[in-house]
Predict the structure.
Amino acid sequence: MLTLFGSPQKYCDGVNRRSFLKIGAFAFGATNLTLADIFRAEASQKQTSPKAVINIFLGGGPPHQDTFDLKPEAPSEIRGEFKPISTAVNGIQIGECFPEIAKRMNDYAIIRSIVGSTGGHDAIQCTTGKPPRANANIGGWPSMGSLLSKVLGPGDPSVPPFVGLAAKTAHLPWSDCGGPGFLGAPYAAFKPEGPDLANMKLSTINQQSLGDRKELLTSFDNLRREIDASGNIRGMDAASERALNVLTSSKLLDALDLSKEPESSRKRYGDGKPYQFQYDGAPTVNDQVLLARRLVEAGVRCVTLSFGRWDSHSKNFDLVRDHGRKLDQALSALTDDLKQRGMLNDVVVIAWGEMGRTPRINKEAGRDHWPQVCSAILAGGALRTGQVVGSTDRLGENAKDRPVTHSEVFATIYKAIGIDPDSTMVLDPTGRPTHIVESQVIRELV
């Protein structure tokens, strides 16, 4: 548990700075390291402009035939209930549940031919670009957020580079924000709930007496003033001072506080309620999409979240009407905000699930698992948007042309945020240099 001493005398007398900065699991999941240790390890890494990724996982696998790859000429038992609608880009049509995205199609790219899904109900391929158990003998392959933390470092010294927003789901793999793999605990995601959030609070203060968040932030500010006045901050090394910046800065807490967002903005995103078809999965967290924008604006490199439960074995069309319209609202608001703030070229947004759904509708008006092919929608990152990459056959069963792998999607995202996927490597636990991705970028997009 974090201990922050409020008196400069207590800090100066008999308490060394390493003890002062011990914070358990705060920020990156480290259990035996301090933030100062982590920051020293990162100090030699080149800092770049604050580019970022928002990775929206559609847990359960959305039906590609009812979202972004409709088959209006297929038999009724294949095409289902939805009609395609035209978009702002001539020749591109998408499902009727996405009218706002259709209006903004110039800002999006759709991939209709993603192949290679292993068919598991988990987020692993969407967070790592690798199949489950990849590099398991050395700790597993790191997720994108962990690799960005390692390669780029923080976009702002007072905020963690990787934030996982997904709250715990009954089916746990649907709320997996991506692990650090062989990079280790220092590069795990910060989760703004549970132990990580608790570690941001002053354990020496009775929380009941704080009353509200304003008093907590005042406590942080007073602590910084006391330390500065004592002159002891000048005695810290740069890494320790940066650790203190995280602990005493209100920037992260401000970013997590949606009450600071104008009501008109919150209304544009919506809150995703009422939650329907959730069962053992994630709710439709429109407010977390807004939170993701606030976090990348504050300097976070990668934000992951899980939006909805798309495992539509029954009532598929009712589910898509609910989830699709909410996703349409949140994604369109997000791209509008990023564009208005001049951030769209620096932030890549992707929404995708772990698989597609069966072309044939079952007797429960549902679609079952279909790992053979699925779709994704992307925006930002100065990608060549306003286009569709790849296609499926007449029934939406298989990729007809331009099959795209998860690894190629990852290479493309890395390229879009300024990382050369051909030359960038990290060291594995054996000391062996390892490329962060082993596929080529999607040339149509970059």
About this structure: Residues 52-192+274-435 form a domain with the Alkaline Phosphatase, subunit A fold (CATH 3.40.720.10). The chain has two domains: 8-44+196-251, 52-192+274-435. The radius of gyration is 23 Å. The longest strand covers residues 108-115.
